[in-house]
From TrEMBL:
GO terms for biological process: methylation. It comes from Tepidiphilus baoligensis. Its EC number is 2.1.1.79. The keyword Methyltransferase applies. SUPFAM superfamilies: S-adenosyl-L-methionine-dependent methyltransferases. This is Cyclopropane fatty acyl phospholipid synthase. Belongs to the CFA/CMAS family. Keywords: Lipid metabolism, Methyltransferase, S-adenosyl-L-methionine, Transferase. It holds the Pfam family CMAS. NCBIfam families: PRK11705.1. GO terms for molecular function: cyclopropane-fatty-acyl-phospholipid synthase activity. The keyword Calcium does not apply. InterPro entries: CFA/CMAS, CMAS, SAM-dependent_MTases_sf.
Amino acid sequence: MATVQQQGFVEERSKPTRGQLRNADRLRALVQSWFEEADVTLDGDRPWDFQIKHPKVLERAIAEGSLGLGEAYMDGWWECERLDEFFARVLRARLDERVRNPSLVWRALKARLINLQSVRRAWHVGEVHYDLGSDFFEAMLDPYMAYSCGYWANAKTLEEAQVAKLDLICRKLGLEPGMRLLDIGCGWGSLMRYAAEHYGVECVGLTISKEQAAWGQKRCAGLPVRFILADYRTFNVDGKERFDRIASVGMFEHVGVRNYKAYFAMARRSLRDDGLFLLHTIGKNRRGGGTDPWIEKYIFPNGELPSIGEVADASEHWFVMEDLHNFGADYDKTLMAWYERFEAAWPRFRERYGERFYRMWRYYLLACAGTFRARTNQLWQFVFSPNGVPGGYRRLS
């Protein structure tokens, strides 16, 4: 009896019984009835249709939920030309709610019982994700290396959208020459570099990625920009250092609900009484529910998306919320632009990363684009002040 082993799955090649065939037919009929609500067809001929390549893929997806579906794609058990549109349609139809995966309940409970984003654990995402290689991200991102949502209101290219986002943040913060800006989770330094070049500010950035810090410090040579390799909780513990402005762009997703209050406390002790703090983060529509198991395992270990209510609850002791801006639909365009660049650059990286990584990264970018297209994920920019801006805050858009 021959066997085939794929990434830990071992399947016996034997002739299925009549009962097994009947069960497989029933499962296929059930899944197809669900897919009809999203205008998706099993083995259809449209770009967003689900192409079955392994007879047990539906059983695996139903049994293991999001994790099983994603791993099955990585293993080549199914194909879809337009994963982005497939996920947008499935999520708009709320088909994800039909499959209740017990692991989601456990992950949500675990996030409340265990500090998945402790100081020790916080460094893991830097090692797994951000330290993949700056040349890889450089091929996928814009020249400023902004790894967060662009602002597409008047932009036609990724470069224009990212510059528009960076300038939008600087204007919302009212940056002026001579100010000091703290960037919590600064990445490769895109915001600090832009703010120093165009607004004449002095910048300090915190990151947990050695690769990002080394690349960013080199690119910011000659500018008043300094990278510090540190977890936010260990920075400025005595509160003696104060900044005129603080920004945090695409980092809050790694903080975790158990640490939100510590995060806002750190921002408050580091901000002048007349300062402003801008928080740019992906968010979810409802609190609870845990992190998607596939994303948590393969892309962002220990990540957790906040809800608006959770941000409000954690920040209200320390700040006045002056402004809230949602442009989550722009993340769809940003992710699709990253995907196009990733595909174009892939021949350079194929030998280094291999086919399974390619399928993982393709799934990541396109599935995430689908979540923003379906509006199940959001992108928010909050502006906070310690005591309320005298006369009121006016957004510059």
